[in-house]
Design a protein that fits this description.
Blueprint (H helix, E strand, L loop, with lengths): L22 E2 L25 E8 L8 H16 L2 E2 L8 E2 L2 E2 L2 E10 L3 H15 L3 E3 L4 H11 L6 E3 L7 H6 L4 E2 L5 H4 L3 H8 L4 E7 L2 H16 L3 E8 L7 H5 L7 E5 L2 H13 L4 H4 E3 L19 E4 L8 H13 L8 H19 L5 H13 L3 E2 L2 E2 L1 E2 L5 E13 L2 E13 L32
Parallel strand pairs: 1-6, 2-6, 2-7, 7-8, 8-9, 10-11, 10-12, 12-13, 13-14
Antiparallel strand pairs: 3-4, 5-6, 14-18, 15-16, 17-18, 18-19
Helix pairs in contact: 1-12, 2-3, 6-7, 12-13
Length: 454
């Protein structure tokens, strides 16, 4: 398993690159509470350059996803903007990127999965570095907070990274915030039907991290599973910074058909290992949320073989678009997994940015009105399929039921089912007036299933 953690330090470092592409490199301290502490001054902008910020997590429980997200964004510049790879570390730059005849200048920002740090970094990138487009953030509460901040800077366009909280677009709905990767509920489409009809499960207990993204994943699963007649008997939420998952796992009910695990990064590994330690078999008795279905968990070992989960990307896919992306990415960044939702969705977001800039010849005048209109009208084809945006600038897209499988001596993925055209209403079960997903919402209620579950 390639778990490439990025460089971190207590101060922000800046690397100025000569030529068409200048890259501001910011390294993330493990516990720096405020990005103004030690923040370096950005170098002078390349004349006429388009300045794009890329914001992800470099510390905290999701630090392992730094390499995936930054490399995904950079590979889109390689593929669509003529850039050249200039290093394999997460914050190593690419060189020579141009869009609409203009050089591109990118700046990296690092958060730690907390909303305050994400907003501080977004503010630094926008107000100090001067980026005009921001790609990110990575985590759920971060996205809600950054979308709220976006309303205060109407002259800047924000394109979501992988932040999957439903409220980011359905509730906050900032007019300058775009999400081409959907929310966590959309990513779970079809998984509950698989549990109910294929596995024959009728009772499920949920174990997840205690914040908005796992709540959103649960909202999709609960709504679908319970509409079919299933019962979610308990929902256990664990603070995001928890290191020892033995106690939460030990407290899980035993009289259920299975467990739905909604974690990411180091928390996934800790929870799966604890589950095995207590005699559980992840491949038989567990389903995974979208961040569980990531190569970062493969260190747990072969007992993951058979684990099924929901994903916004076709992990293990065989379509020409997927294999072309995957093969090209592996050549550019051989030490980073291409089959990670964090790699793919940051790639998708940067691809959308580039295509929007191409359609407007790089025009970011008038509060970027033409650029935003171009983004709104895009119908891009990504490695995970074609998407369109709804009136909240959130994508309608495919969801995938995927499985971890053993391939020889290693673990990999395969696609079990593709659910096309999943929108943010989840087949009519959610709307802007619905209670936001929470520890207890939505309630487990039998009713009309979403179209793909009938």
């Amino acid at each position: 398993m390639r778990n490439h953690r990025g460089r971190r330090s207590s101060a922000w470092r800046v690397l100025a690159v000569a030529g068409a592409l200048a890259v501001v490199v910011s390294a993330c301290g493990k516990s720096t509470p405020n990005s103004s502490n030690g923040a370096a001054t950005a170098p002078s902008a390349t004349p006429g350059a388009i300045k794009i910020g890329v914001l992800t997590t470099c510390g905290g429980p999701f630090a392992a996803f730094e390499a995936e997200s930054f490399s995904g964004a950079k590979y889109a510049l390689v593929k669509f903007a003529g850039a050249q790879v200039a290093g394999q570390k997460p914050q190593d730059q690419v060189t020579g990127a141009t869009v609409a005849g203009k050089p591109v200048q990118i700046a990296f920002g690092c958060s730690d999965a907390t909303p305050d740090k994400a907003v501080a970094e977004a503010r630094r990138l926008v107000e100090s570095v001067g980026v005009k487009i921001l790609l990110g953030p990575l985590s759920g509460d971060e996205g809600v907070a950054v979308a709220s901040y976006a309303k205060s800077v109407p002259g800047v366009t924000f394109v979501n990274g992988t932040s999957g909280a439903q409220a980011t677009t359905l509730k906050v709905n900032a007019p300058n915030f775009f999400r081409f990767g959907g929310d966590g509920a959309q990513w779970m489409a079809g998984l509950a039907t698989y549990a109910y009809k294929t596995r024959g499960w009728r009772t499920v207990a949920i174990l997840g991290e205690d914040y908005s993204y796992p709540y959103t994943l649960a909202a999709g699963f609960v709504s679908e599973f319970c509409s079919l007649g299933g019962n979610v008997t308990s929902r256990s939420w664990v603070p995001l910074g928890t290191a020892d998952w033995s106690s939460p796992v030990a407290k899980l009910p035993r009289n259920v058909d299975g467990i739905l695990l909604l974690t990411g990064g180091t928390n996934t590994v800790a929870a799966e290992k604890a589950f095995i330690q207590f005699g559980g078999s992840p491949g038989k008795k567990m389903l995974g949320g979208s961040s569980v279905m990531d190569p970062t968990s493969f260190t747990v070992g072969d007992q993951l073989d058979g684990l099924v989960g929901g994903s916004p990307v076709p992990l293990g896919g065989t379509t020409p678009d997927w294999t072309a992306y995957s093969d090209g990415f592996k050549k550019a960044y051989p030490d980073v997994p291409s089959d990670s939702l964090f790699t793919v969705l940051y790639y998708d977001g940067m691809q959308a940015i580039i295509q929007g800039l191409q359609k407007t010849n790089g025009d970011l005048s008038n509060n970027e009105a033409a650029f935003r209109a171009a983004l709104t009208a895009l119908n891009p084809t990504f490695p995970n399929g074609s998407v369109t945006l709804d009136s909240n600038r959130n994508s309608t897209q495919a969801a995938f039921v995927t499985q971890i499988v053993k391939n020889g001596d290693s673990l990999g993925f395969k696609v079990l089912q593709t659910i096309p055209n999943v929108d943010q209403t989840f087949g009519g079960l959610f709307n802007a007036s619905s209670p936001a997903p929470s520890r207890t919402e939505p309630a487990c209620t039998k009713g009309t299933p979403p179209p793909w579950a009938k």
